[in-house]
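Researcher: Next sequence.
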Amino acid sequence: MKSKFILLIFALFLIVACSQTEMLRMRVDEFDSTDWVLEEIGGRAVVDKVQSTLRFQGSDRIAGWGGCNRYFANVRSGRNFIEVGPIGSTRRMCPPVVMDQEERFFHALQKARSIRMEGDYLVIDSQGIEKSLKFGRLKKSGS
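Model: Next structure:
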């Protein structure tokens, strides 16, 4: 009887573990090839008409537009965490207000530690930064 109970517990554990792995895979797939546009940085709205974007390219790379420059980075992620490697970018110069937003965006991404969905928003928390990065799905023109 005891061995049947242990076998049943093991089977339930295995079913739960597999279903959670599938849920995680579905979430990563949901982010893949979706363009996200930054809406808040440091608890404040972004500069009007300056789009900083984020796109997950598979499970180990991100790329996007910082507002002035294109960027890319490798990432390591899990169920609720994300770590961003060194960010590479082009080196264009833009007006100071745009460069400031881009610098704050890159700094927060570089210190990213957790990722989650809050309703329709993608939220990234960064180490040492009080307020989260908040992204909405980028709506393509004609969509």
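Model: Strands lie at 35-41, 44-45, 53-56, 61-65, 70-77, 82-84, 88-89, 112-118, 121-126, 133-137. The chain has two domains: 1-31, 32-137.
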